[in-house]
Fold this sequence. Notes:
The chain is an alpha+beta fold. The chain folds into 2 domains: 2-50, no CATH class; 59-128, no CATH class. The chain has 5 helices and 3 strands. The chain has a 3-stranded antiparallel β-sheet with strand order 1-3-2, with no helix packed on it. Strand 2 (85-91) and strand 3 (96-102) form a beta hairpin. Helix 2 (25-37) crosses helix 3 (43-50) and helix 4 runs antiparallel to helix 5 (120-128). The model has no long low-confidence stretch (mean pLDDT 80).
Amino acid sequence: MIVALGVLAVLVMQRVGVRHPFLYVGPGIVVWGGMLHAGIHPTIAGVLLAFTIPIRQKKIFLEENLRMLVNPGSVGQPRDNDPRSSFAWWDRVEGTLNFERVEYDNLAAREDILEAGLPRILGDRLLEGR
């Protein structure tokens, strides 16, 4: 239950647009402590939180032989308060993973969603980025 409250706090913070990383420390400690108390290895808390906190860096330098799971975002249905399309590209020569944002016609995409009879919230989300 404690873990769920910590994760819920992180998700609510994202929903209202909290961007300062220091403010996520409290809920992170709650999730970590809840995992430890439940007898689950607390490293799982770090993995769980890593999937909920969006990356804001535009470039990450990768170490050799490092394996990463990367979710660069998507076109449509954003959840990070930024309605632009997001993608990542890997520069093998520099050893960097680069994140990009680009504008797209989200108004037209919203209209297509509404014309298809899908729920209005799916179209509105494209404009709001959440």
